[in-house]
Amino acid sequence: MGMTKDNVIGFVLAVSSSIFIGSSFIIKKMGLLKAAGNGKRAATGGHSYLTEPFWWAGMISMIVGEIANFAAYAFAPAILVTPLGALSIIFSSVLAQFILHEKLHMFGKLGCALCVVGSITIVLHAPHERDIHSVKEIWELATEPGFIFYAIICVAMICILIFRYAPTHGQKYIVVYIGICSLTGSLTVMCVKAVGMALKLTFEGNNQFKYYQTWLFTLAVVGCCLMQINYLNKALDIFNTNVVSPVYYVMFTTLTIVASIIMFKDWDHSSAQQIATELCGFVTILSGTFLLHKTKDMGNPPPEVSNISKSSDDPPEI
C-alpha cells in the first residue's frame, strides 16, 4: 500500500522526534550523573538535578521531540508513528557509547540495523489514517466498552505498581518504573492523538476547542506526561541508558499499538497480508531491541568482586 501525503508528513515528523528524544536521554543522564555528586539522587526522591543545565537542556530536547511526535500523530496512525521510536534507541545508543562511554557491542549494532529494517517495513505497509471530522468522534471511540475496559486495566496496574511495588522493588527491577511509564504512555498517546486532531481541524477552520472533550483530552495529556517524566527520571538515574531506552521502547510501543487497535480500529480495513507484514516489521524491531539489551555488557571488563551489598550501578533485574 502506497503512503499518503499525510503519512509522509507523519513519517518525517516522527523521525525528527526520534533524533531529539534520543539525544535527550543522553543529555539528561549527564545532568543526573552530575547532580548525584552534588545532592540526593532522583531515585531516592532528590531533586538536585533541577539545578543542572544539562538536565534542562535534555528536557528542552525532549520537549521539542515530543512536539514533533505530537504533530506526527495528527497526520499518521499510531501504528506508523509509534514504532519509529526505535530510531531514538539507535541515536541514544550511539551517543551513549561516545559520550557516556557505555559499550555498544557488535551485536548491539546489529540490533540497531534490525530496528531500521523493521521501521522501514512498517512505514511501507502502514494503514491509512481514519478520517476524523470532529473531536467528538474521537470521544465516542474513547468511550466505547472495549477501550474503557483497556483504560481501567491500565489504571489499575499503574496504581498497583506505584503503591505496591515501586517503594520496595523500584530500584532493583527496571520493569517497575518503565511499566508505569509505558502504561501511562499508551493512554497519553490516545489523548495526544485527540488533541492533535483537534488542533489540525481548528487550523483548517473548524474550531474544536468549543467542545469540552478537547479540554478533557488536554488535561489528561498534561497529567500523564508529568507522571511519565517523573518515573522516567527515576529509571534513568538507576539503570544503564542502553537498557532503559530499549525496554521502555518495547513496552511503550506494544501497549500503544494495542490501545490504538482497540480505540481507532487501525486494522479494520487492512488485509491479512498487510497486517502480517506490519507484525513482522514490529517483531523485527523487537528483535533489535532485544539484542541491544542482551549485549549491553559484552566486551566490558567483569565487575570487581566485593562483599559490599549491591549498589544502584549494578546491572538491573527485569
Automatic annotation (TrEMBL):
Keywords: Cell membrane, Endosome, Ion transport, Magnesium, Membrane, Transmembrane, Transmembrane helix, Transport. GO terms for molecular function: magnesium ion transmembrane transporter activity. Residues 297-318 are annotated as: Disordered. InterPro entries: EmrE-like, Mg_trans_NIPA. It is a multi-pass membrane protein. GO terms for cellular component: early endosome; plasma membrane. Its main location: membrane. SUPFAM superfamilies: Multidrug resistance efflux transporter EmrE. The chain crosses the membrane at residues 7-27, 54-72, 79-100, 147-167, 173-199, 211-231, 243-263, 275-293. The keyword Transmembrane helix applies. Coiled coil: none annotated. Signal peptide: none annotated. It is found in: Cell membrane; Early endosome. Acts as a Mg(2+) transporter. Can also transport other divalent cations such as Fe(2+), Sr(2+), Ba(2+), Mn(2+) and Co(2+) but to a much less extent than Mg(2+). PANTHER family: MAGNESIUM TRANSPORTER NIPA1-RELATED, PTHR12570. Homodimer. Belongs to the NIPA (TC 2.A.7) family. This is Probable magnesium transporter. It comes from Arachis hypogaea (Peanut).
